[in-house]
Write a structure and sequence with these properties.
This protein has a single domain, classed as Rossmann fold, CATH 3.40.50. 43% of the residues lie in helices and 16% in strands. Strands 3-2-1-4-5-6-7 form a 7-stranded parallel sheet, with helices on both faces. Helix 1 crosses helix 7 and helix 4 runs parallel beside helix 5. It is globular and about 50 Å long. Belongs to the short-chain dehydrogenases/reductases (SDR) family. InterPro entries: NAD(P)-bd_dom_sf, SDR_DHRS6-like, SDR_fam.
Length: 251
Protein backbone atom coordinates (compact mmCIF):
# COMPACT_ATOMS: atom_id res chain seq x y z
CA UNK A 1 0.00 0.00 0.00
CA UNK A 2 1.27 3.45 -0.88
CA UNK A 3 1.97 6.04 1.83
CA UNK A 4 -0.95 8.38 1.08
CA UNK A 5 -3.58 6.02 -0.27
CA UNK A 6 -7.06 7.53 0.12
CA UNK A 7 -5.79 10.94 1.25
CA UNK A 8 -6.91 14.29 -0.15
CA UNK A 9 -4.02 16.76 -0.41
CA UNK A 10 -4.23 20.43 -1.30
CA UNK A 11 -1.04 21.93 -2.71
CA UNK A 12 -1.05 25.71 -3.05
CA UNK A 13 1.44 27.10 -5.53
CA UNK A 14 1.48 23.70 -7.22
CA UNK A 15 2.69 25.10 -10.55
CA UNK A 16 5.99 26.25 -9.03
CA UNK A 17 9.09 24.06 -9.02
CA UNK A 18 8.73 22.91 -5.40
CA UNK A 19 4.97 22.66 -5.60
CA UNK A 20 5.23 20.49 -8.70
CA UNK A 21 7.72 18.15 -7.02
CA UNK A 22 5.56 17.82 -3.91
CA UNK A 23 2.30 17.33 -5.79
CA UNK A 24 3.90 14.69 -8.01
CA UNK A 25 5.29 12.82 -5.00
CA UNK A 26 1.94 12.95 -3.22
CA UNK A 27 0.18 11.54 -6.28
CA UNK A 28 2.79 8.80 -6.69
CA UNK A 29 2.07 7.78 -3.10
CA UNK A 30 -1.64 7.45 -3.79
CA UNK A 31 -3.08 10.81 -2.75
CA UNK A 32 -5.71 12.64 -4.72
CA UNK A 33 -4.02 15.98 -5.23
CA UNK A 34 -5.90 19.24 -5.55
CA UNK A 35 -3.62 21.64 -7.39
CA UNK A 36 -4.28 25.26 -6.50
CA UNK A 37 -2.65 28.34 -7.95
CA UNK A 38 -3.16 31.47 -9.98
CA UNK A 39 -2.09 30.13 -13.39
CA UNK A 40 -4.64 27.59 -14.54
CA UNK A 41 -2.81 26.53 -17.71
CA UNK A 42 0.31 25.45 -15.81
CA UNK A 43 -1.79 23.61 -13.24
CA UNK A 44 -3.64 21.77 -15.99
CA UNK A 45 -0.34 20.72 -17.59
CA UNK A 46 0.85 19.30 -14.27
CA UNK A 47 -2.47 17.52 -13.70
CA UNK A 48 -2.22 15.90 -17.13
CA UNK A 49 1.28 14.59 -16.34
CA UNK A 50 0.12 13.20 -13.01
CA UNK A 51 -2.88 11.47 -14.61
CA UNK A 52 -0.71 10.09 -17.41
CA UNK A 53 1.45 8.48 -14.73
CA UNK A 54 -1.61 6.89 -13.13
CA UNK A 55 -2.25 9.46 -10.41
CA UNK A 56 -5.30 11.52 -9.50
CA UNK A 57 -5.23 15.31 -9.81
CA UNK A 58 -7.69 18.17 -10.04
CA UNK A 59 -7.03 21.84 -10.58
CA UNK A 60 -8.49 25.12 -9.38
CA UNK A 61 -7.51 28.73 -9.92
CA UNK A 62 -7.09 30.05 -6.39
CA UNK A 63 -5.43 33.19 -5.09
CA UNK A 64 -3.99 31.95 -1.80
CA UNK A 65 -3.98 35.51 -0.47
CA UNK A 66 -7.73 35.85 -0.95
CA UNK A 67 -9.66 34.77 2.15
CA UNK A 68 -12.91 33.98 0.38
CA UNK A 69 -11.20 32.06 -2.45
CA UNK A 70 -9.20 29.94 -0.02
CA UNK A 71 -12.21 29.12 2.15
CA UNK A 72 -14.45 28.25 -0.80
CA UNK A 73 -11.83 25.99 -2.34
CA UNK A 74 -11.18 24.16 0.94
CA UNK A 75 -14.93 23.70 1.36
CA UNK A 76 -15.15 22.21 -2.13
CA UNK A 77 -12.30 19.78 -1.45
CA UNK A 78 -13.80 18.81 1.91
CA UNK A 79 -17.04 17.96 0.14
CA UNK A 80 -15.05 15.43 -1.91
CA UNK A 81 -14.04 13.40 1.13
CA UNK A 82 -12.31 15.80 3.46
CA UNK A 83 -8.99 17.63 3.67
CA UNK A 84 -6.18 15.39 4.91
CA UNK A 85 -3.08 17.37 3.90
CA UNK A 86 -2.47 21.05 3.23
CA UNK A 87 0.85 22.37 1.95
CA UNK A 88 1.28 26.03 1.02
CA UNK A 89 4.18 26.59 -1.37
CA UNK A 90 3.32 29.88 -3.02
CA UNK A 91 6.09 32.39 -3.71
CA UNK A 92 6.48 35.15 -1.14
CA UNK A 93 7.65 37.86 -3.50
CA UNK A 94 10.98 38.35 -1.75
CA UNK A 95 13.68 40.54 -3.25
CA UNK A 96 17.23 39.27 -2.86
CA UNK A 97 20.60 40.72 -3.71
CA UNK A 98 19.86 44.19 -2.33
CA UNK A 99 21.48 45.27 0.96
CA UNK A 100 18.97 46.20 3.65
CA UNK A 101 20.21 49.78 3.74
CA UNK A 102 19.36 50.13 0.04
CA UNK A 103 16.03 48.28 0.17
CA UNK A 104 12.62 49.90 0.08
CA UNK A 105 10.15 49.24 2.88
CA UNK A 106 7.74 47.65 0.41
CA UNK A 107 10.34 45.14 -0.79
CA UNK A 108 11.42 44.31 2.75
CA UNK A 109 7.99 43.73 4.22
CA UNK A 110 6.36 42.01 1.21
CA UNK A 111 7.61 38.47 1.94
CA UNK A 112 6.73 38.83 5.62
CA UNK A 113 3.18 40.02 5.01
CA UNK A 114 2.64 37.57 2.16
CA UNK A 115 3.96 34.54 4.06
CA UNK A 116 1.99 35.24 7.21
CA UNK A 117 -1.25 36.08 5.42
CA UNK A 118 -1.31 33.14 3.04
CA UNK A 119 -0.22 30.55 5.58
CA UNK A 120 -2.77 31.74 8.11
CA UNK A 121 -5.58 31.59 5.54
CA UNK A 122 -4.74 28.15 4.15
CA UNK A 123 -3.94 26.58 7.52
CA UNK A 124 -7.13 27.92 9.05
CA UNK A 125 -9.24 26.72 6.13
CA UNK A 126 -7.76 23.22 6.30
CA UNK A 127 -7.90 22.97 10.09
CA UNK A 128 -11.60 23.83 10.20
CA UNK A 129 -12.28 20.68 8.20
CA UNK A 130 -9.61 18.52 9.83
CA UNK A 131 -10.95 19.12 13.34
CA UNK A 132 -14.13 17.19 12.61
CA UNK A 133 -12.12 14.19 11.39
CA UNK A 134 -9.65 14.50 14.27
CA UNK A 135 -6.78 14.05 11.87
CA UNK A 136 -4.78 15.95 9.29
CA UNK A 137 -1.39 17.37 8.43
CA UNK A 138 -0.47 20.98 7.76
CA UNK A 139 2.96 21.39 6.22
CA UNK A 140 5.04 24.54 5.98
CA UNK A 141 8.18 25.18 3.96
CA UNK A 142 11.29 27.19 4.65
CA UNK A 143 12.23 27.29 8.26
CA UNK A 144 14.25 29.99 9.97
CA UNK A 145 18.01 29.79 9.84
CA UNK A 146 21.05 31.86 10.68
CA UNK A 147 21.59 35.25 9.02
CA UNK A 148 23.10 34.87 5.56
CA UNK A 149 26.20 37.03 5.16
CA UNK A 150 27.17 36.10 1.63
CA UNK A 151 23.91 37.10 -0.04
CA UNK A 152 21.44 39.82 0.84
CA UNK A 153 18.11 38.03 1.35
CA UNK A 154 15.94 40.98 2.36
CA UNK A 155 12.94 40.08 4.50
CA UNK A 156 12.97 36.37 3.68
CA UNK A 157 14.46 35.17 6.96
CA UNK A 158 12.06 37.40 8.89
CA UNK A 159 9.21 35.73 7.01
CA UNK A 160 10.56 32.28 7.89
CA UNK A 161 10.85 33.20 11.57
CA UNK A 162 7.24 34.42 11.52
CA UNK A 163 6.12 31.13 9.98
CA UNK A 164 8.00 29.17 12.61
CA UNK A 165 6.14 31.06 15.33
CA UNK A 166 2.88 30.29 13.56
CA UNK A 167 3.80 26.62 13.21
CA UNK A 168 4.43 26.30 16.94
CA UNK A 169 1.13 27.98 17.79
CA UNK A 170 -0.82 25.89 15.29
CA UNK A 171 0.74 22.70 16.66
CA UNK A 172 -0.18 23.64 20.22
CA UNK A 173 -3.80 24.50 19.41
CA UNK A 174 -4.49 21.78 16.85
CA UNK A 175 -2.62 18.90 18.45
CA UNK A 176 -5.51 17.99 20.78
CA UNK A 177 -7.64 17.57 17.64
CA UNK A 178 -5.19 15.07 16.14
CA UNK A 179 -3.79 17.54 13.62
CA UNK A 180 -0.04 17.64 13.01
CA UNK A 181 1.95 20.69 11.92
CA UNK A 182 5.49 20.31 10.53
CA UNK A 183 7.97 22.53 8.70
CA UNK A 184 10.38 21.26 6.05
CA UNK A 185 13.71 23.11 6.13
CA UNK A 186 16.35 23.12 3.43
CA UNK A 187 19.64 24.90 3.04
CA UNK A 188 18.65 25.88 -0.47
CA UNK A 189 17.70 23.94 -3.60
CA UNK A 190 19.88 24.82 -6.61
CA UNK A 191 17.24 23.49 -9.04
CA UNK A 192 14.89 26.30 -8.04
CA UNK A 193 17.25 28.99 -9.34
CA UNK A 194 16.10 30.08 -12.80
CA UNK A 195 18.50 30.05 -15.71
CA UNK A 196 20.31 33.36 -15.98
CA UNK A 197 19.74 34.22 -12.31
CA UNK A 198 22.47 36.71 -11.25
CA UNK A 199 25.23 34.93 -9.35
CA UNK A 200 23.59 31.54 -9.82
CA UNK A 201 26.86 29.59 -9.96
CA UNK A 202 28.19 31.26 -6.82
CA UNK A 203 24.93 30.56 -4.98
CA UNK A 204 24.94 26.91 -6.05
CA UNK A 205 28.54 26.54 -4.88
CA UNK A 206 27.70 28.20 -1.58
CA UNK A 207 24.71 25.91 -0.97
CA UNK A 208 26.65 22.75 -1.76
CA UNK A 209 29.75 23.92 0.10
CA UNK A 210 27.84 24.26 3.37
CA UNK A 211 26.50 20.71 3.31
CA UNK A 212 28.02 17.77 5.15
CA UNK A 213 27.22 15.37 2.33
CA UNK A 214 28.83 17.40 -0.43
CA UNK A 215 25.54 17.71 -2.31
CA UNK A 216 22.39 19.76 -1.98
CA UNK A 217 18.81 18.58 -1.65
CA UNK A 218 17.00 18.04 -4.93
CA UNK A 219 13.38 18.70 -5.75
CA UNK A 220 12.80 14.94 -5.77
CA UNK A 221 14.28 14.76 -2.26
CA UNK A 222 11.83 17.40 -1.03
CA UNK A 223 8.87 15.62 -2.58
CA UNK A 224 9.84 12.27 -1.07
CA UNK A 225 10.32 13.69 2.42
CA UNK A 226 7.09 15.68 2.22
CA UNK A 227 5.16 12.53 1.29
CA UNK A 228 6.64 10.65 4.23
CA UNK A 229 5.95 13.45 6.73
CA UNK A 230 2.37 13.74 5.46
CA UNK A 231 1.81 10.01 5.91
CA UNK A 232 0.68 8.07 8.96
CA UNK A 233 4.18 6.63 9.28
CA UNK A 234 5.18 10.03 10.64
CA UNK A 235 2.20 10.23 12.99
CA UNK A 236 4.40 11.04 16.00
CA UNK A 237 5.84 14.13 14.33
CA UNK A 238 4.35 17.53 15.11
CA UNK A 239 5.55 20.91 16.40
CA UNK A 240 8.72 19.96 14.56
CA UNK A 241 11.02 20.91 11.74
CA UNK A 242 12.37 18.32 9.35
CA UNK A 243 15.90 19.04 8.22
CA UNK A 244 16.26 18.31 4.50
CA UNK A 245 19.50 20.23 4.02
CA UNK A 246 22.11 17.49 3.58
CA UNK A 247 23.71 18.84 6.76
CA UNK A 248 23.85 22.50 5.74
CA UNK A 249 21.59 23.42 8.66
CA UNK A 250 22.67 22.23 12.09
CA UNK A 251 19.86 22.09 14.66
Amino acid sequence: MTLLEGKNAIVYGAAGRIGTAVATAFAEEGARVFLAGRTRARLDELAERIRAAGGSAETAQVDALDERAVDEHADAVAARGGVDISFNLIAHGDVQGTPLVDMSLADYERPVVTAVRTQFLTARAAARHMIGKRSGVILLFGGAGEPVREFAVGGLQVAFHALEAMRRQLAAELGPHGIRTVTLRTGGIPETLPAGFPGREAIEDSITGKTMLGRAATLADIGAVAAFVASDRARTMTAATVNVSCGALVD
